[in-house]
Amino acid sequence: MELRIERIDSWLVDIPTIRPHKLSMATMGCQTLTLVRMTCADGLIGWGEATTIGGLSYGPQSPEGIKSAIDGYLAPLLSGKSFSGLAPLVALMNGQVQGNTFAKSALETAFLDAQGKRLGLPVSTLLGGALSNTLPVLWTLASGDTQQDIIEGQRLLAEDRHRAFKLKIGARPLEEDLRHTQAIKQALGPEISIRVDVNQAWDAATAVRGMAALQQIGIDLVEQPVPQWDRTALIRLSQRFTLPILADEAVADAHDGYALAAGGFTGAYALKIAKAGGPAQALKLAQVAQAAGVGVYGGTMLEGTLGTVASLHAWSTLKLDWGSEMFGPLLLKDDVVTTPLRFANGHVSLPSGPGLGVDIDEDKLRFYRRK
Ligand code: MUC
Ligand code: MG
């Protein structure tokens, strides 16, 4: 039952966003997906995606760098080889290529897609089995304008597409961000869960002031208030406030999760397949979190449908303490799949069918791929 990889192709795919998406470090008007096609000797094809945010402004792996790691190193390493399952594939990639978790995530996803199609099983089954076929999904209000965010939030609540929201703060002075946050919290009402993501923008002293004020406003969760490297501040903040912290940039894989928890962190971890090196690797972080009594949350790098679905298969095997933010495809004007995901009642549905359960629209891939 070995799966032999014949060839691996990759493309950069540029898709505009439905509106500017403003984070503390970048404003996105377009999202670049790195897509991978893994062709196996038996003719089966697996697809994967690796996507980051804002070129090199969010993290150290750019879309172009991801593609070059795949084309120049990982594709030649894997092509022509046979694998009995995921573990030997991951061992080979990690043995020969340092870092580059985004590229590895796309390949792990493509392998799982191909293997699932071959066995006639959804990827979630390969990863342990889905606890649920619908997952809670919030939306990020990040137009950069308070009034526009309120109108957008009210519309999505009226449609019942989402029941919780995340705000992107940190680019503006603290007082301005607090006014923005309070106005949105008041307008959407006390029942609606509002979280904020600072994306590392505050130093430890600003974070103490910010956390105290956000707790007063009634915010439910504060994501990555301090820089990724400042684990000490993150741990201290998590112990000082009852308002919980979600670690994102500070926790990529199981090793980070262990170090933070062993250091006394309380709160939750944002799981992302790209940070960890693939859906199965992200689940290893989830297991560390659960063993340490730390919550888990289904995180996104604002991927298109392929990367989002790969994540959903993994998250479906977990009890998500804080739900998920797998709305990436809704931020894009278009996508390269034949059937869009279904978002309704504050939830997204996990596709059924073997592998990822998603088909690629080859015409759209041709249209949007970078020439
Ligand atoms: C992040 O840092 O969490 C996830 C949702 C969103 O709007 O931005 C991303 C990145
Ligand atoms: Mg974040």
UniProtKB/TrEMBL annotation:
Signal sequence coordinates: none
GO biological process terms on file: peptide metabolic process
SUPFAM superfamilies for the chain: Enolase C-terminal domain-like, Enolase N-terminal domain-like
Keywords: Aromatic hydrocarbons catabolism, Isomerase, Manganese, Metal-binding
Annotated Mandelate racemase/muconate lactonizing enzyme C-terminal domain residues: 147-244
Domain of life of the organism encoding this protein: Bacteria
Pathway named in the protein's UniProt entry: Aromatic compound metabolism
Residues at the active site: 168 (proton acceptor), 325 (proton donor)
Gene3D superfamilies in UniProt: Enolase-like C-terminal domain (3.20.20.120), Enolase-like, N-terminal domain (3.30.390.10)
GO molecular function: metal ion binding; racemase and epimerase activity
Cofactor names: Mn(2+)
Pfam families assigned to the protein according to its UniProt record, in alphabetical order: MR_MLE_C (PF13378), MR_MLE_N (PF02746)
Family the UniProt entry places it in: Belongs to the mandelate racemase/muconate lactonizing enzyme family.
Name of the protein in its database record: Muconate cycloisomerase
Biological source species: Serratia marcescens
